Amino acid sequence: MAFESLASRLQGAFDKLRGRGKIDETAVNEAMREVRLALLEADVNFKVVKEFIARVKERAVGQEVLKSLTPGQMVIKIVNEELTALMGGDVAKIAVANRPPTVVMMVGLQGAGKTTSTGKLAKHLQKQNRKPLLVAADIYRPAAIKQLQVLGEQIKAPVFSLGDQVSPVEIARQAIEHAKENHLDYVLIDTAGRLHIDEALMEELRQVREVAKPDEILLVVDAMTGQDAVNVAESFNQQLELTGVVLTKLDGDTRGGAALSVKAVTGKPIKFAAMGEKLDALEPFHPDRMASRILGMGDVLSLIEKAQEAVDTEKAKQMERQMRQGEFTFDMFLDSMQQMRNLGPLEDILGMLPGMNKLKGNMKVDEKQIGRVEAIVKSMTKAERANPDLLNASRRKRIAAGSGTSIQEVNRFIKQFEDMKKMMKQFTGMTDKIKKKQKKG
Ligand code: GDP
């Protein structure tokens, strides 16, 4: 999970403040010392930490906080606001050219996730009804062109390639022409990477920039490399003048140093964050939501957005209608489980709920257990799924054998299912009553 160790350190520091009725300057200083250590341990740039702590302290020992009724909460609120500001404040959106196509150069070192991110970005744009063209201009890494073509096939986006014998400059020039002729509105150029920054690479990128006149130059960096990522960003920015950063592999970054320092050090915002290898694992970077997540306040907004994308609304509506009529079948249960799964690993989902970050340590989500429950439902016949009353002892025995579980497990699940059904009935009954009352009133 992203930022796990930083989050638990910071939350630990704040727990001490939260409990107190009164807070004095010493208590604030003590908490700030811990925050400072937590940030340094998270590999946040030293200067950035120093300035951050100074800003928070200045605000936190002010009258408004010490005299407020919940000073602990006030300090946390200030830290939340300052973390948000540190990461850039508002969401930095991707450019849109006045006259299409919008040209985006994707740059970065080898292995950072540049090619994958190019594919993910194309998919993100498609979701907004844009038509991206992927351009294979990394002619040095042997598999890069093929990799982009495979990505293009997966998302059904056109890929422009002239093989590895034509110069990247020429590829970029022709690709933009191609996009214009075919009314494609984004040109995403996957440029060459290197293992290290060198002058030849920069020169080539400058030449491509000269011809492509990009609206965006996005640097892809690997969050897991911490301060190295920040240094890479600084060099690229000095030599190429970036417009933004794509931070990859946040799913494996427990510390968060790069995310917290990039904007402050380079002045360039993080525009997108990648949190996994799958093609839909790229999101616009929301500094405020990220700050809330780090502080264990959850990220309910992102969760809702995810749900809107992953959940089949027609199905959900139908399910709601059925539930209103007191109907809840195993099939509906299975459907809702599958929709939940579309949201991603449960642990990540839980991390977005307020306060769950801390709980998660004690409450390992057992994905295997969920798989077993699914197997049980799948071992039922159609008739059984629609009508739990049919499930007598011999049927239960068959289901246990079919799903590789035990009769006890099957019994326990059916009992849980019945309880759930009862609860839902009560719940819909309650909301109906409230609605009726509202109508009368
Ligand atoms: P490039 O050399 O910069 O083009 O790097 P690639 O796009 O080929 O990616 C290098 C490796 O990192 C691949 O195995 C990707 O699947 C993986 N990768 C890229 N982005 C992410 C991410 O956000 N999370 C994880 N876990 N892996 C990623």
TrEMBL record:
Keywords: Cytoplasm, GTP-binding, Hydrolase, Nucleotide-binding, Ribonucleoprotein, RNA-binding, Signal recognition particle
Domain spans labelled AAA+ ATPase: 100-247
Enzyme Commission numbers on file: 3.6.5.4
Residue stretches making up the SRP54-type proteins GTP-binding domain: 101-296
A GO CC term attached to the entry: signal recognition particle
Binding site for GTP: 108-115, 190-194, 248-251
UniProt cross-references to Pfam families, sorted A to Z: SRP54 (PF00448), SRP54_N (PF02881), SRP_SPB (PF02978)
Compartments reported by the entry: Cytoplasm
Reactions catalysed: GTP + H2O = GDP + phosphate + H(+)
Predominant localisation class: cytoplasm
GO BP terms, alphabetized: SRP-dependent cotranslational protein targeting to membrane
Segments forming domain Signal recognition particle SRP54 helical bundle: 2-87
Superkingdom of the source species: Bacteria
A GO molecular-function annotation: GTPase activity
Domain notes: Composed of three domains: the N-terminal N domain, which is responsible for interactions with the ribosome, the central G domain, which binds GTP, and the C-terminal M domain, which binds the RNA and the signal sequence of the RNC.
Stated role: Involved in targeting and insertion of nascent membrane proteins into the cytoplasmic membrane. Binds to the hydrophobic signal sequence of the ribosome-nascent chain (RNC) as it emerges from the ribosomes. The SRP-RNC complex is then targeted to the cytoplasmic membrane where it interacts with the SRP receptor FtsY.
Subunit record text: Part of the signal recognition particle protein translocation system, which is composed of SRP and FtsY.
Similarity field: Belongs to the GTP-binding SRP family. SRP54 subfamily.
PANTHER family linked: SIGNAL RECOGNITION PARTICLE 54K PROTEIN SRP54, SIGNAL RECOGNITION PARTICLE SUBUNIT SRP54
Protein name, UniProt field: Signal recognition particle protein
